[in-house]
Design goal:
The chain has two helices and three strands, in the order ααβββ. With 112 residues, the chain is of the alpha+beta class. It has two domains: 60 residues, no CATH class; 32 residues, no CATH class. Strands 1-2-3 form a three-stranded antiparallel sheet, with no helix packed on it. The chain is elongated. The protein starts with 9 loop residues before the first helix and ends in a 16-residue tail after the last strand. The mean pLDDT is 78.
């Protein structure tokens, strides 16, 4: 007895799972390119970690939001924000103004 699926070894199942995950993540990154008009913003939004490693944010309107003139993505390059100040968020000694901020935490991305 063992962990077999359709006659495959556990190693083969793990490999197939990794390949399926990679294909799905590539599909998500392609969607970012299709929807987000600014290339730099699109690159900053692409994740290079396994799907479901973090909660995916893909409401139908999420990516299109970054095409609006009143929305700006600030990529901190993995660095932490200094603090919250009355004028907004403080990052590298500069206040990032705005009424609403979404702070993404967590894993660093690996770029290709």
């Amino acid at each position: 007895m063992g962990c077999e699926w359709a006659g495959e070894s556990p190693a083969a199942i793990a490999r197939a799972s990794r390949l399926a995950n990679l294909a799905w993540c590539e599909k998500i990154r392609a969607r970012v390119d299709e929807v987000v008009e600014d290339r730099q913003t699109a690159e900053s939004l692409k994740a290079y970690y396994p799907f479901y490693c973090k909660r995916p944010c893909f409401h139908d309107e999420y990516l299109a939001t970054f095409n609006r003139p009143n929305v700006r993505l600030v990529d901190t390059g993995g660095l932490e924000l200094n603090r919250i100040v009355p004028k907004g968020l403080l990052f590298r000694g500069r206040a990032l103004p705005g009424g609403l901020h979404r702070v993404r935490d967590g894993l660093r991305r690996r770029r290709k």
